[in-house]
Structure formats: C-alpha cells, structure tokens
Amino acid sequence: MSVTYQYGERGELPPVRLTWHQGENKPEIWRKNGIPQWGDGCLFIGGKGMLLANYSRYVLLPEKAFADFKPPAPTLPRVPGHHPEWLRACKGGQPCAADFEYSGWLTEANHLGNVAYRVGKRIEWDAQNLRCKNAREADALIRRVYRKGWEL
User: DSSP 3-state assignment of 40?
Assistant: First the structure.
C-alpha cells in the first residue's frame, strides 16, 4: 500500500506532501536500484536531493552532490532503542524521546492511511474533532461503539 499525506502550511512553514510506501510496495527509485538497498529505513526526497536514513545511519543522495557536506553538531541525545528506552522510562529514568503524545500523533497519521484504504477514497481529517470531514463511513473505523456497561 502507498499513502499520500498532504499537510497544509503551519504558520511560516510551507505545506508538506509525504508518501508512505508500506511492505513490498517500494518506490520506483528503490525498485530500480537507484538508491542503496537497505532492509529498512526512510527515504526523504527533496528538491535538491534525498536523505536515506534508519535508526543507526543516514546517507545524502546523490552522494557525489553531497561529498563536501559537513553535518551540524548533534542536538538530540542518542537513544538506546525502542525497548531499552521504554524500560528505562518505566523504571523512573529519563522520559522517552518519542513519548505518548508524539507517538500518538504519529500513530494517528499512519492509521488514517489505513482508514482511507478501507473506505476506498481520499479522506479529509479534522484533527480537532477526530473525524473524517468527507467520509462518515469512516467513523466505524475510527471509534468503536462499546456495549452498554462497558463504555469508557
């Protein structure tokens, strides 16, 4: 499955278009060996080049165009990985870098791709009211109806 998300401008930030490719449905540049064949990662395609990254490495593409690039000094602490970081936070240590608020927003966005796929059309999301503006049929996929006595 491939999903295209379109986010409007936010303050001084311009609109963003993001395409998510899931599973074996890789972007054409990957299928034609136009980028390194990593088993996992994210590919960001911009107007001047691409960034291929996973949790432990990154590469700017095309590599020749960025041969003289000097990365900025790191500003975020490195994390030991999902599970060790979560366990550390559960034991009263440093909070996770991607806490429940952040991960909730990320999960919401990802699942909206599944909702659009299931209803078979482009959806317009109302984040304030947590509903699709143009697809009432999506309500059943977004909220469950609890049996009497089991409401939250």
Answer: coil
